[in-house]
Amino acid sequence: MSDFNGNFWHLFVAGVTLVGIVACLILLWFSGKAKAMTANDNTTGHVWDGDLREMNNPLPRWWVGLFIITIVFALVYLAMYPGAGNNAGQFGWTSAGQYTAEVNKANAEVAPLYAKFAGMTAEQVSKDPQAMAIGDRLFMNNCAQCHGSDARGSKGFPNLTDADWLHGGSPEKIKETLVQGRIGQMPPMAAAVGSPEDVRNVAHYVLSLSGSPHDSLRASLGKSKFGACAACHGMDGKGNPALGAPNLTDDIWLHGWGENAIVAMINNGKVNQMPAQASKLTEGQIHVLASYVWGLSNNKPTAN
């Protein structure tokens, strides 16, 4: 794609645009000057349906006038707005600038609504029906694409309703995730673990940590090799929120369950990214959205 970022292409676009306009002028001039071979009755000699003859009348003045107005408008437009290569135009208009202005205007209009919740704690906001209705809309527009409309996630996308958090589930941590985003990286560990058989043994040991079905002999052999993984997941396999290392003892599998899935993870590693939302959402929106997400796993209905 770097081939399309050179200085040549903006000149190419500007050239094609201007040549097209000039070509329209030449065509208009030529059509007014060129004389067609006609008969004495001002016809071209073409006859259809027995008596329908083609005349050689000049272009209507109103049509020529509109053509000229269109060309003048195109030249004025190119002078005022970007259209000729990388020329910004006299107005300095950009689609990104217009988008930003419209977003800022909309945010200013709804700011008083979010100010109502600014002094409330996440727990208080999560119990406010109006705030939760707003939070639900924010979630649907910005989070549901990955985490699902019910926030239960899917393979590779965390479930936000189960109180299992890679980086911690406090309102402050949720806000931090929304503002900064997250990049979770599990490096390929096969070389550190040992042979392919060692990798399989470690996979069964990991399964044993959560009480999942496993081969107990392989699990016992894999325990000593698990030391290569303990730097992140801990010797007890309970993970490390500071690193975003998952708890391997809770039977919650973000990228799939079973020997094959764990072997693939050890062999290939995994990189996941949660995009930062600070550039899209205001501070007030993030506060409401974080409170909404926090409430999904902390405000569960109790049985009567």
TrEMBL record:
The chain crosses the membrane at residues 6-30, 62-81. Binds 2 heme C groups per subunit. Heme c 1 binds at residues 143, 146-147, 274. GO terms for cellular component: plasma membrane. Pathway: Energy metabolism; oxidative phosphorylation. Its cofactor is heme c. Residues 130-210, 217-297 form the Cytochrome c domain. The keyword Signal does not apply. InterPro entries: CcoP_N, CcoP_N_sf, Cyt_c-like_dom, Cyt_c-like_dom_sf, Cyt_C_IC, Cyt_c_oxidase_cbb3_su3, Cytochrome_c_Oxidase_Subunit. This is Cbb3-type cytochrome c oxidase subunit. It comes from Limnohabitans radicicola. The lineage of its organism: Bacteria, Pseudomonadati, Pseudomonadota, Betaproteobacteria, Burkholderiales.
